[in-house]
Amino acid sequence: MEKLKFGIIGCGYQTQKNMAPAMAKCECTEIQGFFDIDTSKAKKFAHEYGAQAYPTLDVMLGDKSINAVYIATPISTHEELCRKAAEAGKHILCEKSLALTPEQDRRIRDYCAKSGVYLMEGFMYQYHSQHQFVRDMIAKGEIGEPRVFQAWFGFPPFPPTDFRMQKELGGGALLDAGAYVIHAAKNFFGREPVCEHRVLHHDQNGLDMHGSILMDFGNNQTAQLSFGMNNSYKNSYSVWGTKGEITLLRAFSIPEHHIPICRIVNQGLVREYQLQPCNHFVEELKAFASRII
Fold it and tell me: What are the structural domains of the chain?
């Protein structure tokens, strides 16, 4: 089977814990090499995965054997990295959030369109099989007509040195945890909201630490979303309908061997379903590769 050969840009936690292992497991991807501004990290990963460690980004992007790049760096660096990758003809899988502003987002998409490369923003959660189970249950009429989509994603603060705690690097709750619940609401309803209202709470340094959003999708359908980086851990969504409610107890970040639980409540009757484990990072890679290979 033909494999998509990746160059990985950024050797932090996401690469180490999730994406590099997923690429090694996925039948349609292969790690060609690593680049990080800390060359010792790139060398360590290269040794572990039997790949190359590139001394500079330009050297990596100049490697003709690389088909695509995976970008796992602070959000503030994404536009420049995507531009260079697109100009080098590399397809791009970039961790969310893609950009700091709508203007940056448009420019990144323009770079990729101009160069004819495929761009995917890395919301891995959506490729977990549990979401299809939810859609199937709703299609069967288990909760009636969906009216309200509710989602929560929050966790305790990161160390001050983490880029998510640094505003200038694209940190903050909205672009990190908030991005998931917003994406999930739009993904569920399959359209943009007609209007929205949001409340953001900032720390003494102006960093948004938690917030809530109300979205009106029209057709008597709304989304109520909450997120934060100084909360107790919560990671779930629920769809409230005219006949009942369906909930995923762990919706956005779920280990590959974890057994998902889906709960359906109809007029006081509670049913819980244990679903099949799924590596949503591997499934994300399969979806990405299917657009290219």
Answer: 4-124+282-290 (3.40.50.720), 129-277 (3.30.360.10)
